[in-house]
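With this grant's support, we have paired protein sequences with backbone structure tokens. One protein thus recorded is set out beneath this paragraph:

_____
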Amino acid sequence: MSAPFEATLAWAQSQDAADPLRGFRDEFLIPRHEGRDVHYFCGNSLGLQPRAVRPALSAELDSWADQAVEGHFRGDLPWMDYHEFVRDDLATVVGAQPSEVVAMNTLGVNLHLMMVSFYRPTPERHAILIEAGSFPTDRYAVESQVRFHGYDPATALIELKGDEANGAISMEAIERVLAEHGSRIALVMLPGVQYRTGQAFDLAAITRLASRHGCMVGFDLAHAVGNLPLQLHDIGADFAIWCSYKYLNSGPGAVGGAFVHERHARTTLPRFAGWWGHDKTSRFQMGPQFVPTYGADGWQLSNPPILALAPLRVSLEIFRRAGMAKLREKSLRLTGYLEWLVQSQLGDVLEVVTPGDPARRGSQLSIRVLGGRERGRALFDDLVERGIIGDWREPDVIRISPTPLYNRYADCVAFVEATRRWAQRG
């Protein structure tokens, strides 16, 4: 039986030519290096700029110049309702009802806002479950929330350690920690995809298990949104938060997003209130009593930043045309091809850290260089000098993410060939 892949550039180019999503690459601006497109594998850190972003921003600048304050009410995209123009497409990407999502703030801010409502500790139940080695945004936020409520992170933070190869976490490990500590856990706060290992978690299974133990459930989807098909409404998570500058291609420091399940749409849980979260029908009566608008919109604090939302609107329109199911189909094959190349061509140089089961990963492969950190860093620096852009995560991981909207099979071959030449020189 022949292998499903071939390691030649000609084979990769034939796959690119037959790719039904190949045209989407042309909708992005690809950085250049020595007269050619870079091989960009860093969409898990900062997505590329869609070509339509610049005219979208120019249109809003023109509205500001031509209409000033009247831009809030005039034109095809009046600013008063601008956050609503991304709502339906955003809901589709994360598998939610439109009323359950809102584009606002940034990930760290949204996490704190959600924890005001969904981390309600008591002396008997005040612990938070996170993964060991969580991204600093999450770690700093949950630790500060624990301290804010008067508890000690040394006992209130339960860190879930990897029990599989390379630090991956099994469902059995999650089951064990909830069986032991579930009665004192107020909030389970885990990622959709772990940033360092690239492991994707079974969000539905985690939600069911944590809910049985009476825990609130929230997810950081920074590395999952736009990467994996999500079904936030159906799985029943209490909340989720994400950034939009990675796979959603919305630009550095882009507006983030939040999901609040519809069962909390009229919640009596406390929240930090802001004017733009007030009921839309009476907002401009300027009354003293805060009346939250229905759904996730009720967690907004301020009016939407138009110039920051325009790139998100553009990117989400691309996702609507591409479709998450088709993107996931290509992602599985493209990432599988990269993994096969690494294992078949570079097994004596590289080790894949990310789980091998395609259902337990997205577009990212985390890779270690055999021989230690210094060799790993040397390879990473050499790749950058040759226009092959991934990213480095301490202590020793190179993250390579073949993003289906704009990456090609030929990019994967270029990565492997450059790595092989580096190894031969060293």
